[in-house]
Amino acid sequence: MASTKDILNAQRFNRARLMTAFQSGMPEGRELTPTRPWGGLIGGIILTILLFGVAWVSTLFAPSLPANWEHGSLITDENTGARYVSIEGTLHPVNNASSAHLMFPGNLKIVSAGSEALTEASIGPEVGIAGAPDQLPTPESVADPTLLTCTATGGGPWTGVNTGAWEEPEDRAVHVIVDGQSYLVAGGYRYPIGDDVHSPEQILTALGQQVEAPMQANATWLNVFPQGEPLVSLTIPGLGEPAGSMTGVGDDVAVGTLLEVSDTANEGTIYVVHQGGQIERMTPVMIQLYAIGDGAIYSDPLPITSQELSQLELIDGSTRGTWPEEIRGMLEEGETPCAYLDTESAQGQVRFVVGNDIPSTSAMMVDVAPQSGAIIRTRADSSLGYTHLIDESGTMFTVNPAADTLAALGLSEADDLTVGPEWRDLFYAGPSLSTTQAWATVPEESRGEQ
């Protein structure tokens, strides 16, 4: 009979066989010795390491702001298009790109980030110069700008920057009226017409032009032309007084006498005698307006040869120096009178031209070629005034100090064009631009080190 010890050993043996069968799962009832559970533990550890690695790698691709964004960056939200300028680790919504360039001249970093990445930074108050340009002209477009301004009956001036076509008037003029005053625009001047003695119609008739109703012009456009001497009858100082002896003319020549070259070299050229026996060449306009005044008594010139003329003292342009040389006709109906700024002249000389396909507008209008603009410096009497930037919208901004401000915007003061102060009234008025103005929009406690 089995002892108690034998029974216990048999039970342990059966339990071991049963556990082995469940753990091995091998066919044909093969029994295996239980193994230690290290394989499962090591596999779990490896799986855990892999999960942590994937999580770490995923952080590398998570949305985030670029390195060194904290100060001096213009950051655009890729999702919304909103723009921010970074100042001392804070993002400030900025009105326009120009303000950001003015705050950090020469070293502004331009980057973009997603909306999710921007949430990691604090947002400050809005900064920037309100109304400053967002789209700046290219340096190439301001290097050699063209300015053209035109008027139409009863309408506001149309002004084009680097746009608009024109042609020469071929010594023609246009008769306009502004605030009841008649003007003749010709060459590069506006001339008041008539006085208490002769009406504008009489002056036009004397100039050989057909009298028609004048164009109602815009005063802003007209003022672009400097005012010339009024077109009235021409009077020679000391008219009728003795001029003394003149070689080839006679011993008793009166001031105001006309001399006409009779030989082939300069045939038909007419001169008038001044006090002291000096002579001055008469233009066709001078001759026409001399004939309707006191000079009419000397309307028949005396003949003189080129040889005799060479022995006389000639003065140049002392009488009515701004008058046009000749008026050969008037603009026809439908033609558009314009002022063109001649950029080849040092002081920006204005020329009267005829516009082609110019838009008709009832109010002031400015057209600027795309991504274009101009830098102009206005004259103030005999000195130079402020420098202005004209952007693609036709808005004019005063830049002061000019050199530093333009450099911050990627432009150069060397490209400025000198114009009369009247040109300022042809553009929409914008705010002044400068680094100081830009930083003045930032709260003092947010500025840090500028």
Automatic annotation (TrEMBL):
InterPro entries: T7SS_EccB, T7SS_EccB_R1. Keywords: Membrane, Transmembrane, Transmembrane helix. The chain crosses the membrane at residues 38-62. GO terms for cellular component: extracellular region. It holds the Pfam family T7SS_ESX1_EccB. Coiled coil: none annotated. Gene3D superfamilies: Type VII secretion system EccB, repeat 1 domain. This is Type VII secretion protein EccB. It comes from Flaviflexus ciconiae. The gene is eccB.
